[in-house]
Design goal:
heterodimer; A: about 375 residues; alpha/beta; abc type-2 transporter like fold; four-stranded mixed beta sheet; 14 helices; about 10% strand; B: about 375 residues; 2 domains; Bacilysin_exporter_BacE_put (chain A); cell membrane (chain A)
Chain lengths: ~375, ~375
């Protein structure tokens, strides 16, 4: 079979198989809308808290009004004392307790110790805990500034140094704008991998003869092209539709997206050649999806992982892809900025291509049964 | 032998014979749980590389740089005077944040202008960027207060300490704000959930002949006991892995479960049984293993995102909240996290009932569907 015949046969097989159309095409479209949905509101909002206001003064009431108006937290109730607040938090009513202690205004005015603000959060949910902490600090600073502003100015007092935090690239520090661009590489990899491995495991299950070299390259090219389409569908259309940050470096994508698709397709061809049945491909590969996302280093950085694990993670195309496509798409990076990862990706194309070519074209493997 | 025992022994015989299916219950969960455990072994990020842009280059700015470098969370990899150069380092992922120190930082109060120190951080990798910025901000705030005090006395002004009111945040149940405790608590149940979904779809899917479970159901001698016998090895294996993981977290890593471990273990088994019932329903409806696996990848693969355990869904869309309430992982995590932090046992009743509902509803629809296919094929 020639290159062209291998290419055409693969495309025909994909498009006429309901299983392959649904895993390789429909799933790609579905995930583009389904996956970002729980992150669409971008920041932690309305995290439930209980308030203990021991002072009950003008200032503390102002702090509580400001706090009630912030998006981050929702005041479930104002409670008389700490023990009952703790009991209600343990009953699952809230994720945190805010204590405005007696003397807080005096401490604020005179700098005297004794009064203060205490926040207790269930840090088992880290993100909720930080939402509460940030909300309280901001409301308190705002109220203090407002209350004491004129007096402080009269004395020539002001904050000596202002520390300003600025999120780069994802300028609203939004959660969807952080998670979706990263998870997109995992979605693109897994959908292509499932489809390619399912198809070639099925071929082996049916006892197909080893492929001619030209036909192998034709099939690889056909699957790569599918991956390229899916990649540009995400980076060109879905990223715009989902309105995630875009600093699109299109020329660099024209090089790196085909490399990524070729690496994933080759890995799929190789794995497909190892599985005994077509269903085995998905049964084995689907459960890896969640760990593979975390191994990209998006939630916990690669340089904080044990070195051996980080090295293994680099063998997975999606890990490289996250560190190529997020810089190119979100940070406005140049190709030279992602040169190292791109070289590794090219290496994976050769490695997995060679493994797949060896496995699928060798003579001895005529019938696995 | 009754239908339950027959189905169970048939399944065990199959597992002994099929290396692939056996590996999915042994090697695969071992490898995935081990990888996630190793990944988060550090728990708290240390020495994250950051860059400094110092426009001041006085003893004051150098003191700030030293203070930042002393923060355990970060390590300075570059000190320069050029912001674009530092931004390139961030783009290349060689720095997670940039501290920009303006000219005249130490003379701020004396001059009557408040200098602005900018901390720019990598927000495309928000989780790590935020950890870096917290480490820096604490050090900068503390050190700049010292500097101002020093500058005042240098100008022969009385030392006036403006102590901004501090908000004392106490992290309960995770004092070190460790990612190991936080993320492993969420990832590993999600991984075992997805694994359970896949292995149980495969187990029942194997019995499909000409897109029907009819032949298997007729030979089984009772759909309910046969289904239970078939699923038992899978549910038991995953529950055991769940216990292994809990023992690792508590005994080996020293994390403390404030509530009832027994309740978590029971909830976990119920959760995996419910997952198996959903798989039975998927196979009975789609009558195709591949489609059942695709559906599992969609619903269980993204369940963690919808669980609200990372980003809470209180501000989310109606769609997201409805999907979240439908997915079993949401309820299991509510139960587990509640017990981890020692919520009252009564707060576990709701999640437990929800988990029971998956067994009742998914199983309750799957069984008549399979029984009907047995009759129609007869």
């Amino acid at each position: 079979m020639s290159f062209r015949a291998g290419f055409e046969e693969t495309w025909r097989a994909v498009l006429t198989s309901r299983t392959l159309v649904s895993t390789m095409l429909l799933a790609v479209v579905l995930y583009a809308f389904y996956y970002p949905a729980p992150y669409a509101h971008e920041t932690a909002q309305r995290v439930p808290v209980l308030v203990v206001d021991q002072e009950d003064s003008g200032l503390t009431r102002e702090v509580l009004r400001d706090l009630a108006a912030t998006r981050g937290v929702r005041i479930v109730d104002t409670v008389a004392d700490m023990p009952s607040a703790t009991a209600r938090m343990r009953a699952g009513e809230a994720d945190g307790i805010i204590l405005l202690s007696r003397g807080v205004t005096r401490s604020l005015l005179t700098g005297a110790p004794g009064g203060g603000v205490g926040v207790w959060v269930k840090a088992a949910y880290l993100l909720r805990a930080s939402a509460i902490g940030e909300g309280v600090s901001a409301a308190l600073a705002g109220a203090a500034e407002h209350r004491l502003g004129s007096a402080a100015r009269a004395f020539g007092l002001r904050t000596p140094v202002r520390v300003i935090q600025e999120p780069l690239f994802n300028t609203s520090a939004g959660y969807k704008d952080y998670v979706f661009p990263a998870v997109a590489s995992v979605i693109l990899q897994q959908t292509l991998l499932f489809g390619v491995a399912t198809f070639f495991a099925g071929r082996r299950e049916q006892g197909a003869p080893p492929m001619r070299r030209a036909a192998f390259f034709g099939a690889w090219a056909a699957m790569t092209l599918l991956g390229v389409f899916a990649g540009f569908f995400y980076f060109g259309f879905i990223f715009w539709l989902q309105d995630v940050p875009r600093g699109g470096n299109v020329p660099a994508l024209l090089l790196t997206v085909p490399l990524f698709a070729a690496a994933v397709a080759a890995l799929g061809l190789f794995l497909g050649g190892l599985f005994d049945r077509s269903e085995r491909a998905m049964a084995v590969l689907v459960p890896t999806s969640v760990p593979l996302f975390f191994l990209t280093g998006s939630a916990w950085p690669l340089d904080q992982m044990p070195a051996w694990l980080a090295a293994l993670a680099h063998l997975v195309p999606s890990t490289l892809a996250v560190h190529i496509f997020v810089p190119l798409n979100q940070m406005g990076a140049r190709l030279s900025d992602v040169a190292g990862m791109t070289m590794l990706l090219a290496g994976e194309v050769l490695l997995y291509g060679a493994l797949a070519g060896w496995l699928l074209t060798r003579r001895s493997d005529t019938n696995p049964r | 032998m009754n239908a339950f025992a027959r189905a169970l022994s048939a399944e065990l015989a199959h597992l002994r014979a099929c290396r692939w299916d056996l590996a999915m219950l042994t090697l695969m969960p071992a490898a995935l749980l081990f990888a996630m455990g190793a990944m988060l072994f550090g728990g708290v990020a240390r020495d994250l590389p950051i860059a400094v842009v110092d426009h001041d280059t006085t003893s004051a700015s150098r003191a700030l740089v030293r203070a930042v470098d002393a923060s355990p969370a970060v390590r300075i990899v570059s000190v320069g005077a050029d912001l674009p150069e530092a931004l390139t380092l961030v783009r290349r992922e060689q720095a997670w944040a940039i501290v920009e120190i303006p000219r005249g930082v130490g003379r701020g109060l004396a001059r009557g202008t408040a200098p602005e120190i900018h901390i720019r951080y990598q927000a495309s990798f928000l989780s790590t960027g935020t950890q870096a910025v917290r480490g820096i901000a604490g050090a900068v705030t503390a050190e700049s207060a010292e500097l101002v005090a020093a500058q005042l006395s240098a100008h022969a002004l009385p030392v006036l300490r403006v102590t901004p009111l501090t908000v004392q945040v106490t992290a309960l149940y995770n004092a070190a704000t460790s990612f190991e405790w936080y993320l492993l608590s969420l990832i590993n149940p999600a991984v075992l959930h997805l694994l359970t979904a896949c292995v149980t779809v495969m187990a029942l899917g194997r019995e499909l002949h000409d897109k029907s479970l009819g032949a298997w159901a007729r030979a089984s001698g009772g759909v309910v006991p046969a289904l239970l016998g078939k699923m038992l090895p899978y549910v038991a294996a995953m529950s055991l892995w769940g216990v292994v993981w809990l023992l690792y977290l508590t005994l080996a890593r020293g994390w403390r479960v404030e509530g009832s471990i027994a309740l978590i273990v029971a909830g976990q088994s119920l959760f995996y049984l419910g997952t198996a019932c959903i798989s039975a329903l998927l196979v009975a409806v789609t009558r195709e293993t591949a489609t059942g696996l695709s559906a599992s990848a969609v619903y269980a693969g993204s369940a963690l995102a919808f669980s609200g355990a990372t980003l809470p869904l209180d501000g989310g869309s109606g769609f997201a909240r409805v999907v979240s309430a439908i997915l079993p992982l949401t309820h299991y995590l509510a139960l587990q996290m509640g017990q981890f932090v020692g919520d009252a046992p009564a707060s576990a009743v709701g999640p437990m009932l929800a988990l029971l509902a998956y067994v009742g509803i998914a199983g309750g629809i799957a069984v008549p569907l399979i029984a009907r296919s047995a009759r129609s094929a007869a």
